[in-house]
Amino acid sequence: MASSHSILCMTSIIRFLFFSLIFVFFLSSCSVSKKSSETKVYYPGSGKTSTGSTSTKTSTKRSSTTGKVDSRAKTFIAPVDVDRDKFVKYAKTLLGTPYTYGSTVPSKGLDCSGFVYNVFQHFNVSCPRVTNDYTWEGREVSRSEARPGDIILFTGSDHSSGVVGHMGIITENNGDIMFVHSASGKRVGVILNKLSGYYENHFVKIISVLR
Asked: By the 8 A CB rule, do 79 and 211 touch?
């Protein structure tokens, strides 16, 4: 009886070890399979890495003023061949157009980006529709280098944010920079202003997109 009991115990132990080995092997296989199917994705500028089943290649741009990395491609990939004098001359024909949020049609009114959009469209030039997208466009120039036709960028009402929320077109730079834009304050519309006072406090930068 003792001998039979010992054999039975040994059989149970061997069976237990056999199934345990199979279970461990199965877990190992799943882990290897999972790791091989996952791709680590690095998020530029965040210093963080996450894991996912797929990865997408993106093009990144670095702003010369903010130093931030952005994945959006530029609209203006080369200087636009439009005569600066004609560009500014047409922009001035829109003086007096009332301010209307979200509009690019002069007969209905223009907001600040709609005004710039309309000027570019007049010369059959594709451009961003949203003001903030100009943050990554063109070549940044200093105030002394600024020329008529360059785009001037400002923050919105919160000047401490540093986020571009308003824009215009420079009309002259004879020591003092003048620009035309569609102002929303009291629903003013398209007017000419000097870069001073309120606009000086909200100034972000000037970009050149024309040749």
From this structure: yes
